[in-house]
Amino acid sequence: MNPKTILVADDETHILHVVSLKLRNAGYRILTAQDGQEALDLARHEMPDLLITDYHMPRLSGIELCQRLKSDELTAHIPAIMLTARGYHLEPHDTQESGILRMLSKPFSPRQLLTTVNEVLQDAVVA
User: Fold this and answer.
1) Domains in the chain, ordered, with CATH?
2) What own/partner pairs with CB < 8 Å and gap ≥ 24 does 38-45 have?
3) How far apart, in whole angstroms, are the C-alpha atoms of residue 121 and residue 25?
4) What are phi and psi of 27, to 5 degrees?
5) What are the tens digits of pLDDT across the range 26-53?
């Protein structure tokens, strides 16, 4: 069985490294992008099983990235987890229109992230 593919988009190199390492060690195939446009291009080409994206990124924000993926029938099925600065809140219409299923505030624990990823991917299988 092929491992699930997760696209991680964040302009902070240390976040990309920590998230990628934790998920790769858990058996996932990891793709990384350092801005929203790079992530959009990779998602369209690779069709990952899950997107983990930061909110604040160059070229396209995480919200814009998720909205573009959601509006394209080829990528609309890709669920997303949004990483945000502590205390930042998205309105319900933002998450509904963008496919964002969960939000995690930075700093987060790698264990918490892995639990959230497993839950989202499990829910996607059931749905």
Assistant:
1) 5-120 (3.40.50.2300)
2) 38/9, 39/7, 39/9, 39/65, 40/65, 40/68, 40/69, 42/7, 43/7, 43/69, 43/75, 43/78, 44/72, 44/74, 44/75
3) 16
4) 100, 5
5) 999 999 999 999 999 999 999 999 999 9
